[in-house]
Structure formats: C-alpha cells, structure tokens
Amino acid sequence: MSLRVGIVGISGFGGGEAMRLVAGHPSFELVYAAGEGSAGSRLGDRFPGAPATLAELVIQKWDPVTLPKLDVLFASLPTGASAEALARVPKEVKIVDIGGDHRYVEGWAYGLADVWPDRIEGRTRVANPGCFPAATLTALAPLLADNLIEPGNIVIDAKTGISGAGRGGGGTFGYADSNENLVPYGLLKHVHMPEMATTIERLSGGSAAGLVFAPHLVPMTRGVLATMYCRGRATTEQCLDAARRFYAGRAFIRVTDRPPQTKWATGSNLAFVSYAADPERNLVIAMGVVDNLGKGAAGQAVQNANLICGLPETTGLEGAPVWP
Amino acid sequence: MSLRVGIVGISGFGGGEAMRLVAGHPSFELVYAAGEGSAGSRLGDRFPGAPATLAELVIQKWDPVTLPKLDVLFASLPTGASAEALARVPKEVKIVDIGGDHRYVEGWAYGLADVWPDRIEGRTRVANPGCFPAATLTALAPLLADNLIEPGNIVIDAKTGISGAGRGGGGTFGYADSNENLVPYGLLKHVHMPEMATTIERLSGGSAAGLVFAPHLVPMTRGVLATMYCRGRATTEQCLDAARRFYAGRAFIRVTDRPPQTKWATGSNLAFVSYAADPERNLVIAMGVVDNLGKGAAGQAVQNANLICGLPETTGLEGAPVWP
Amino acid sequence: MSLRVGIVGISGFGGGEAMRLVAGHPSFELVYAAGEGSAGSRLGDRFPGAPATLAELVIQKWDPVTLPKLDVLFASLPTGASAEALARVPKEVKIVDIGGDHRYVEGWAYGLADVWPDRIEGRTRVANPGCFPAATLTALAPLLADNLIEPGNIVIDAKTGISGAGRGGGGTFGYADSNENLVPYGLLKHVHMPEMATTIERLSGGSAAGLVFAPHLVPMTRGVLATMYCRGRATTEQCLDAARRFYAGRAFIRVTDRPPQTKWATGSNLAFVSYAADPERNLVIAMGVVDNLGKGAAGQAVQNANLICGLPETTGLEGAPVWP
Amino acid sequence: MSLRVGIVGISGFGGGEAMRLVAGHPSFELVYAAGEGSAGSRLGDRFPGAPATLAELVIQKWDPVTLPKLDVLFASLPTGASAEALARVPKEVKIVDIGGDHRYVEGWAYGLADVWPDRIEGRTRVANPGCFPAATLTALAPLLADNLIEPGNIVIDAKTGISGAGRGGGGTFGYADSNENLVPYGLLKHVHMPEMATTIERLSGGSAAGLVFAPHLVPMTRGVLATMYCRGRATTEQCLDAARRFYAGRAFIRVTDRPPQTKWATGSNLAFVSYAADPERNLVIAMGVVDNLGKGAAGQAVQNANLICGLPETTGLEGAPVWP
User: Fold this and answer.
1) Are A235 and A99 members of one domain?
2) Contact criterion met (CB < 8 Å) for B13 and D175
3) I need a labelling partner for B251 at 20 to 30 A (CA). Which of A60, A188, B187, C10 fits?
4) How far is CA C214 from CA B141, C191, D1, in A?
5) How far apart are CA A31 and CA C142, in angstroms?
6) Between C13, C170, C175, which is nearest A179 by CB?
7) In B192-317, where do the E strands start and end?
8) How many residue pairs bridge chain B and chain D with CB atoms within 8 Å of each other?
9) B24/A contact by beta carbon, under 8 A
10) Are B167 and B21 within one domain?
C-alpha cells in the first residue's frame, strides 16, 4: 500500500530532488506538488525526465486549505517562508521540513537521522538539518560523544557546490560569474551557525561558544565538504575507531581511511567521514562529505519520512552514487 | 531468484556505470568483476559509494578460464580488445558487449533496444551500440522508417561529454587542458561511422553514402547531443508525429516539442528526440540526447540484458535523471 | 597623446572586456563609463582587479547630454537599446557599437575588420559584428571569395560559451542549471541570421537563401566554435591555401591544419580557421574559433577603433591568449 | 634594448604562462625554450595562439652545455629536477627558478617580491615561492610584522585550481574524475609546508611549530584561495589597516574590504588580501587570493626578473585580470 505524498517547493532544487526520490520510492506515491515559479505547468514540463506516471501532474499554487488528503508532506521553501506556510497544515499530515524555519523549534524533532533516529521515530513534525550541518555534525558527532575534541574550539571551513545557494539566486549565481570562481561568503554569520552550535552542545554537554564557521562557494553543482580543525589529543586511528563504533550498523555513513571527495556522494544519501590527527600538536582534523541535495536535503528528508512512517529507513534510498 | 552477473572492464567509465546499475537491479547479483587497472583491489576501494554488499568483492584480472559460473557478462573494453577477450567465454554465458568490436558482426545482435527489441530477445550475444549511434539513430529511425528524409544526405554534428572519450585518455583529457575548451576531433573518420551508416541503410533501404559525421568534445562529464541536418519536405509536426508513433509504448524514449538538453538524461537510460523542420528549405533538423554512460552504454546494456534474460526491459532502469 | 575614451554598458560582459582592453591600450585613456546596473559605484568596486588608475572612476547613468568630451565611445548595450541611446551622441565622437542595432544600417560601417579593413578606415560609426558572425564569416570569407563553396547551401552548427548569452540572462543561465548541460536554442530564427546572410551574399555575389543556423550553449564561460557544412568540390589543401592567401599579412587570423579549439583564443583578439573537405562527397567543412568577448566583441571593437582613429590596428591587442 | 630570455620547462603550465608573459614584455625577447615533452616541435604547434614572432622557435631538449647566450633563464621544472638541471648554468645567466628546489637554499634569494623586494634586487639567483605560499604569506605578512597574530597557531585551509597540480598529473587529474569534485589531499605533509613555516618565522621572529596546512583541489583551472584561522585580538579594521600600510605603494597587492574571489586575479600578477576578525573570540581570519600561474608562478617570476634586471617591477605585468 502506498502512502500519499505531497511536495511544496517543487521549483527549487531541494523540492526537485525530493520529487526524484519519491518517484523511485516503493511505498510513496506523489499526488500533490506545489511551487511558486512553476504553478500551472505539468510536472513533465518542469522535469522532462520525470517518470511518465508523474508527467501529467499539474503543479499547484500552495494553499493549505485546498490540500488533498496526504500522509506525508515535504516542504522545501526559502528560509522564513515555511513557518507560516506550514502552520495550517492538518495535524494528521506528517511533515518533513527541508527548509530552515523549524530547526530546534518546540514541537519539531531535529532530523539528524543517522545520529538520533530514536528521537525521530514516532514524531509527526521533523525539521531536516541544513546541508552544512549534515556534513559537519555527522563527522563531529562521534568525536564529541567520546570527548575526543573540545566542543568550544572548533573551526569549520566548509565548501559547497552552487546548488546549495538555491535557485532563487539565479541572478547572483549566473554561470559566467560563478564558473572558475571560488567565493568565501557569510563569514562568521551564516544562518546555519546556531543549529550547529546547539547540536554540538547537545552532543558534548559543553559550550560551543568558540565556534568558527567559514563557508565557501565552489564552482560545481552539488556536494559539500566540511574540513574541521579541532583541539584534541586523539590519534587518527582513535577517531576512525570512534566513528566506526558510533555508526555501527548505520546504512548511510561511510567511515573512510582516506580524505573523502565530494563526488563520492553525488546523487546518494551517503555521508562520508574521515579524520587526520596529530596528538603532538593537539590537533584533530575531521572531514565530512555529503551531497547537499541528498543527505544535505532531500535524501535525509526521505530517510526522516521513512522513520516517522515506520518504514525501514533505507527504503527508496539504496541507489549508489553517480560516478563520474 | 537472482541471475549471476559479471562485469569485465570495471575500471573504465562504462564498466563502473554497469556496476551501479547492476547493484540496483532486483534480479541481478554482481558476483564477478574484472579490470586491468584495478585488479586486486576491493570494489569498495575503487567505488567508495558502492553498496556495502559489494564492497568486499575483489576485482580480478580478466581470464576466461577462471570465470565463475555466470548467467550474464557485461564487457566494457577498449576498441580492439573485446573480440579476443570474449572469444573463449562459455556459450551458456549471455554476453552484452558495451565495447565496439562486435557491432554488425555475425552471430551478434545489434542492440539498438528501443528500435529493434524483437531482434534482441532470445539471443545470447548482443553488441551494444556506441554512444553517438545511440543518440543519432534513435532520433533518425522514425524519419527513415517513414521516408521523411533522404538517407544519403545526412550531416551529423555530434557533441559529447568527456567521459565519452574513456578513462584511458587521462593524459590527453586532463582537467586543465579540457575545461573551458570545445574540441572538434575525428572529423569524417570516427570509429562509429560504419555502424551508423549500416543502421541508416537497414532502416531506410537506401544508401547512406553521403553521411557526414563531425564529433566534438564538450567540457562536461556526461551527455551526448547529436544535431542532424537532413534533406526532406516534412513539417516539424509530421516529424514529431512519426516519432510518437514509432516509439508508442517504448518506456525510454521521450519525444519533446522543444530542443532537448543533455542534462535532462543524466544518470538515466532515457533518450530524448525532437525535430525542427522547414519544408520550404527542404530541411529537417533532428536532435537526439542521451547520457553517454546510460542509454549510450551501461543503461542500454542492462536493457539488452533484460531482453535476452526474458525480464521486463525496464527492470532496474526506472530511476529518474539526476537534476541538477 | 592619448585619446579620450568612453564605454556605455560597462555592467555587461562586453563592456567589461572593453574596459580591460582600453586599460591596457597605450593610446586610449578611459575617462567615462556608464552602466545600468552599476551606476554610482566606483569602477574598482565592479572590477576589483581594474588598474589602480581607473579604480576611482565613478560609473554614470547613461545620458548623452552630459557626456564629457570624448574621441571614441564603445557601446555595448542589449539588442534594441543602442539605436536610441546613441542617436544623440555628437557627430565628432567616433562610435563603435558592439551591440546589434546598427549592423548593415545606413551610415554605419560593418566592422568585419579582418575582411574589410578598408571599408572601416576613415569612418566615424562602426557596427561591430556579432560573436557568431565573427567566427562564421571569418572562416567562410576566403571560400566565398574564391567560389570554393555554394553560398546558398550552408549549414552553420554554432556553439558558444555562456557569457555569449549576456549577463542579463542571469536567471535563465544560473550555474546549477547550465553547468554540465548542452542546450540547443534559437534554431532557424537567431537574431544573428540576417547579418550572416547579408555578408555571405556580399562576399559571394550569390544568394544565401538556404542558410541554416543552429546555435548551442556550451557549459563554459568564453569561446565560440562554428562548424559549417558546405557544398563544394575543393580539397582541404585548396581551402587552407585560399585562407592563407586571403589573410596574408592579417595579424589576428590563424589558419591551422588541425581543427581549432576554443581555448586557443581565450582572452585574445585572434580568430582561428581551418577546413576539412571531401571532394567526392561535394563537402567542405569550415571551422572558425573566436573568443566571443574578444574577436567576437570587445577585441574586434578595439581593432575597429584603431582603424577609425588611424592607429596601427594591432595597438593594445598584442596579448597572447591565456592558456590553460 | 631587449634582454635575451630563455625558458626551461615550457611544456608545463608554469613554463607556458612564462612564455605568454615574456612574449608581452617590452624589454624581454624569448630566444630559447626547452621542454621534455615537446622538444623538437615549434612553439606555434604547442601554443597555437603564440605571437607570430615566436611561432617558429623550435623547442629544445634541455642541455646547459648548448645553452645560447642568455641574460635571464626562467626554470619551471618538477620538484627535484631543477637543482641538478640548473647547477651548470653559467653564473652570468640570471635565473628565476619557479620550481621548488631552491627555496631557502644558500645562494638563492627567496622571491617573495611584494614583501622583500630589497632582498631580491641585485641578486642573480631567485627561488620563486610556491603558489600556496604566495597566497598565504602575502595575507599573513602584515599581521605577523605587526604582531597582530600568534605565529605558532595558524591553520591554513587552502584551495587550488587543478592546474596547480601540474600537467604531469594528467592521469590522476583527468577531466571526468576531477570535474564536479572537491578533493582534500596532502593533509599536514604538503611539500610547501617548510617554506611557509620558515617565512612565518622570519616575518614574526617566533616559532611556527603549530602550523596546520590542509590543501584542497577545486574543480576549476586556475586560482588559489587560502583561508587562514589565526589567534589574535585585533579588529578587522586593524588588520586591514596593517595591510594597507605594509603594502603602501606596492603595485600588485589589493587590500579589500570584502572576501576576495579567485576569479578577481585570473591571468594577472595581482594578489588580493582581506581579513575578518572577532577580538572576543581571539580570532583573525586572513584570506589571500592569487592566480596560481600568475602571482603564484610565472607572474611573480617575471616580477623577480624585473627586480634583478634593474627594470621597474611592473614592466610587462600591467595587464588587468580576465573577467569573466
């Protein structure tokens, strides 16, 4: 039996990727799609490669009043837009909010699915982590849980592909200006910082007051790599071992000996973590890689939907990454 | 029940994509992989994102004598290498040769699966079309079958992503020399020409003597677009209509009103065809788009394997393209 | 002694490249810059790498009434905008219009500088050719002049980097949608067609009625390659020889034995032409490569300005292409 | 009067860029070029866009015995190859070694031209800094000179375009594997580390023992961005002010309020530096951008050659960056 699924924000990159994953999900049926820029057009016009069974679905203008009966709704709206948009969705519709408005908000589970699956199961409202937090926290969690690094002294140098900036930014992120260009932005004041600080504190029990976060736009479409510089006396092997234990049996986390590359994850819900430490210098480098639209958005969202619907969490997410 | 599958040429791009598709195929089990450059390593070393169930498979040096019991073997070897390599494979092993050596060779079906599926079913040896022919012939077939264009007067201007040149060409196709560069090559003498000419003749019954083929390398990883300039008096609508009838019920062909873009197909087994005609100028422009590693190689190969194994031809190939 | 130079349209790619070339020109001094999107800002804000001597120049809102005394004005405005904008510029200001409004317009020389330099010298109004015509006509001119091809039967398959679409198209040409994507557009109805047809007719004396033009967007920033399929009985060597004679002594044209690559021209005012012919098939393939912002826009514009100012035409344009 | 110039290592990216700059230099004449992979071919075959005056120069196999009379030799050889190759070059030939073998070697000046021009003038042997050190040290020097940061506690997260890995690595850095991929490598053990540590110590007078260096390959051709995390109590404005004073009157250094982007420098000898500090967190982020083939290699080399030849240091280096 299929669950009835809707997506709001289908015109954006996150919503589009949710469409792709829902289309391939054996227990989900996409029955509703809404989008600002594409309302009125067929899904097949917007996504010429969409499955034939979905091509005729007409994209709606979002209106919670006319929402059809749904089991699950994925929301992928710009920051600031989803709080209001989702307030009037009926309680019986489970929601996974890929956008940023409900992270660490009362009544919403924080959907860091590989770290805290038990906090998500049984809930009806899940706030998906941001793409940077997905890469960052997945790599840091085992170290923080084992007290291998100081929570108050973490520097995150993060790099993202340009789809991470969203489609709305077309003007700013035009091809000719962005290609062959590497751009630091949002130094020390990125919108993802509070979410990362809070999670670090919950994982470690200590303060994350010294957190430094410097994101960079990289001329590629997908992919996030976070390189984190931490204080700690662990060896590389101790860090890898902590991660292997922490993620034992977790399907989507790969702990690797060598530094992970963003392309390893493209199109998948995988996260790759690795470490390089130098105890003599009191240094641990942690690295996390995700596809910003996969584990960093729609992949993690489907995993969260699986968890709250009582499905095996890997359902519909088994696809291997696309290489090259 | 799963069929036992092997892949030879796993180090190349076509073999790697076959691995990805076989891994996600519900009736195939990958039990054997061989590769020149990667023999001795684990599949998980070569493909860090490979499914955990395959990660421990050790890549072999190719030797038909030590081949395990297989139902299907995919071969993806450089031109000139597969004829000899496959000669001693036991008859009961079905083979799909992604490489170029067996196209239009006695005893081998030519695997243009969406055009001639009935010539493939029941066979045990299939030669997969090249990536350029896959894009080109899929778009031309309906026009040739309906005599809407002259077979002897076709100009093919073809553009391919750089993975189409194979991994062996690393030295030639280094990043810094290839990026931001558009390169015509192999004018009038490309290895795919005879295969295209023969197919055009079989489809039309006429001579393809005037065929012109000009391939170009485009700075992108995947994708083929063939733009074809033909002589004919049909209208655009007549061409589209011919294609819709020709491919009625075919799962992987999309006939589109607007010119197709290569990214529509990325990661999928889809082919997109479209047309723009001007009867007053005796002109029909035909366009075909495929992912050179999908419909142009491993996707079509799996479709062919499905056909010769008596499976529904879409099995394991339902995934929507990855966008963006 | 320096000539006083102005640029209108400095916010666009063509205007920006004109700024770069004027800055390096020994006889030009940039004293005025106007731009829609950047009026009020310093040139150094817009172009952080601009020469220190220009950084403080404040970009103006275009208004011909407040124009300072100028010797030369470069205009790089969107199609449709320059006719009106330039109508009231004083007669004594020489104008090179990089935009499309004045091509083959009464009173304006058509600035195909390497083919017809003598029609440009002594003029005060020059309409710069479009980027596609620059690549196309440069390669075709010697063949047409020697009657080696039929003027009425030319197919132009043209490929351009995305800066060729202009900066205004940021929304349409966002990075994530354009990267790894090859896009045909404007089939048979591109705005550059009349200009090419007219020039072909003037060069050959015959009709260009059968002209076919199919442009494609390629995922790279700069570069145009035109591949042209023509009817003719010449050999490759005859075509090369015709071009070598036609362009003898011309500084910016390179006739090459092998097919030209777009990156050969990046950042320069060079054009590369080559040919591959097969007399038995009545076929001549002509290829032309330019940088769409160099010979295809600002480079050619500076060359034209040199011609009308009585300077050696290579002044300020000697820089070798940037590779890789 | 022109100085006679030679280049050894013309087949590599650094040697090729040196060729481009020497070709445009008013006081240099290229009379000799040597290269491993291209010996015997004409310069015009290797660089189709090379100035016509250089096209006929035949590339030699390197042999110091048959060296013609030269005033200046640029060497751009792989690490480990230049020490021996240059040992027998006559003393009267001035050498700028772009390769790594002579940095902080007895008898060779370290060519950090914008920081220590006076240590370079009058010398005959100059070791050019590596591309990472050029970006890193240019941004750090003013802070270290003013004691605004602790020298022993610097984390360098560096990102380079793929030409920084050299052309020899074609196999490793093939287009399809490198495109859309972000790759950390050489963590904590990169060959550029000692050079950076030594320079930091000389600039500060303190120990650089805690230096952390993590380089990353970014899918673009040119450009280096170093993001550095330092300990210090200065404000952003104090850092910017220190840099403006330190580099007052230096032609190639741009101190910018906003974070620099790699494309600002493409094709030029410019370096961009900026800072973002938070005294409450004892944090200074320093950023440096260079073109790895410009200020990071051939541009700096020409600047050094100007210094040792008694020419104005900007000669031949005035060209503005190529954008976009």
Assistant:
1) no
2) no
3) A60
4) 21, 11, 51
5) 61
6) C175
7) 212-217, 224-231, 253-255, 271-278, 283-290
8) 59
9) yes
10) no
> Are D278 and D141 in the same domain?
yes
Provide the shortest C-alpha distance from residue C260 to chain B (in Å): 7
Average pLDDT score, chain B = 96
Does residue B321 lie within any of the structural domains? no
Q: Does A258 touch chain D (CB under 8 A)?
A: no
Q: Chain C: nearest CA to A310, how far in angstroms?
A: 35
The model's pLDDT over C36-54, given as tens digits with 9 standing for 90+, comes to 889 999 999 999 999 999 9
Show pLDDT as tens, one digit a residue, over chain D (324 residues): 799 999 999 999 999 999 999 999 999 999 999 998 899 999 999 999 999 999 999 999 999 999 999 999 999 999 899 999 999 999 999 999 999 999 999 999 999 999 999 999 999 999 999 999 999 999 999 999 999 999 999 999 999 999 998 775 444 689 999 999 999 998 988 889 999 999 999 999 999 999 999 999 999 999 999 999 999 999 999 999 999 999 999 999 999 999 999 999 999 999 999 999 999 999 999 999 999 999 999 999 999 999 999 999 999 999 999 999
User: C322 to chain D, minimum CA–CA distance in Å?
Assistant: 7
**CB-CB neighbors (< 8 A) of B266 in chain C:** 180
Comparing alpha-carbon positions, the chain B residue that sits nearest to A259 is B48
Cis before D324? omega within 30: yes
Asked, for residue C160, whether it belongs to a domain, the answer is yes
ipTM value, please give it. 0.96
Q: Do residues B177 and B278 both lie within one domain? A: yes
Same domain, C209 and C284: yes
What's this model's pTM, rounded to 2 decimal places?
A: 0.97
H/E stretch holding A255: strand A253-255
Instruction: Tell me which chains share at least 3 CB pairs under 8 Å with chain B.
Output: A, C, D
Nearest to C221 among D20, D23, D324 (CB): D324
In terms of Cα–Cα distance, which of B108, B65, B109 is closest to B90?
Answer: B65
Q: Do B259 and C180 touch (CB under 8 A)?
A: no
Domain membership flag for residue A314:
no
Q: Is C220's CB within 8 Å of A179's CB?
A: yes
User: Does residue D314 lie in a domain region?
Assistant: no
CATH code where residue D115 lies? 3.40.50.720
Whether residue D210 is found in the same domain as residue D275: yes
pLDDT digits (tens, 9 = 90+) for A143-178: 999 999 999 999 999 999 999 987 754 446 899 999
Beta bridge partners of A285: A229, A276
| Neighboring chain A residues of B324 at a CB cutoff of 8 Å | 13, 16, 163, 221-222
Other residues' Cβ atoms within 10 Å of the Cβ of residue A225: 27
- Is there a single domain that holds both residue B246 and residue B168? yes
Write down the pLDDT at residue D37: 85
Facing D176 at nearest CB: one of B162, B176, B180: B162
Q: What is the CATH number of the domain that holds D230?
A: 3.30.360.10
Query: How far is the C-alpha of B39 from the C-alpha of D150, rounded, in Å?
Result: 49
- C302 near C7, Cβ under 8 Å? no
Contacts of D319 in chain C (CB under 8 A): 24, 319
Q: What per-residue confidence (pLDDT) applies to A173?
A: 87
Say if the Cβ atoms of C157 and B212 lie within 8 Å: no
Count: domains in chain B: 2
Tell me the residue range of the domain where D9 lies.
3-129+296-308
The strand ranges marked E within C147-211 are 155-161, 183-184
Find the CB nearest C324 among B176, B229, B287.
B176
